[in-house]
Amino acid sequence: MISELRITLIISTYNHLRPLELCVSAFERQTLQPYEILIADDGSGPKTCELIQRMLATSSTSLRHIWHEDKGFRKNTILNLALAQAKGNYIILTDADCIPHPKFIEDHAQLAENGFWVQGRRSYLSEAATELIQVGERVHSLKLFFAGQLSGAFKGFRFPIPIIKKNQLQRGIIGCNMAMWKADLLAVNGWDEEYVGWGIGEDSDVGSRLYHLGRLRKFVYGRAIQYHMFHPILNRDHLAFSQRRFSETLQSKKIRCTKGVDQYL
Questions:
Q1: DSSP of 192-212, one letter per residue?
Q2: Which DSSP symbol is given to 156?
Q3: How many beta carbons lie within 10 A of that of residue 10, not counting itself?
Q4: CATH number of 102's domain
Q5: Assigned domain for 209 exists
Q6: Could you tell me which residues come within 8 angstroms of residue 174 by beta carbon, excluding any fewer than 6 positions away?
Q7: Using one digit for the tens of pLDDT, what is the confidence trace for 125-142?
Q8: What are 29-68's pLDDT values in tens digits?
Q9: In angstroms, how far is the first alpha carbon of the chain from the final one?
Q10: Do the domain assignments include residue 193?
Q11: What ranges make up the beta strands (E) of 42-161?
């Protein structure tokens, strides 16, 4: 573990009431606490704000709520706003619909290395398992696996020795379990706000621009584990536009996006 590491955890959310509470409560029970937790809120309504205020009152960790007005899907914008306010020097990213393993932060801290960013994996809780899990309860992956309530189970177990692949591949870039140096994110100008809709813009695009910056990825199994809660599949109508924009990023080897975090610094 790098001794001067100060971890800012950014949790993205939008009207995720119960999932957000499950997620944040799991981060309160980590073997290693982050320096701070920022909830990057893409315009949730009053009920989410009330929940966060209750959590702020009882949190043992520095917890801040970063919010902007609901004007449609603007996850990249709220991530940039959170990045601009982050006090740590190392950023871990997750979503409110994911429950971390108790050693999630500790594992990411051990994996941090100059010149690299980290891609963790996720397994999937069934709808039934998602409904049954309670705030403060640990996810028992082995029990759920044998009950047929956990898919992608190979990614849901913490191994005695992790499998780490160092590469610059596109496969498996997911924004809900990424970690990188804040300085590297600032060097690529954070997230590209020209993207609309979920997917690609908040993960593959920023990951690829980190590649273009010269950073390798640590693609990790058996460490930094999280469990994705069930929810219906979101609308995909925007993906054709996002894919075209992403193709431009790959072809041009672009490092910095034009409309990024620098407008908030």
A1: -TT--SSSSTTTHHHHHHHHH
A2: G
A3: 24
A4: 3.90.550.10
A5: yes
A6: 119, 121, 122, 203
A7: 999 999 999 998 999 999
A8: 999 999 999 999 999 999 999 999 999 998 888 999 999 9
A9: 29
A10: yes
A11: 63-67, 90-95, 98-100, 116-119, 123-125, 150-151
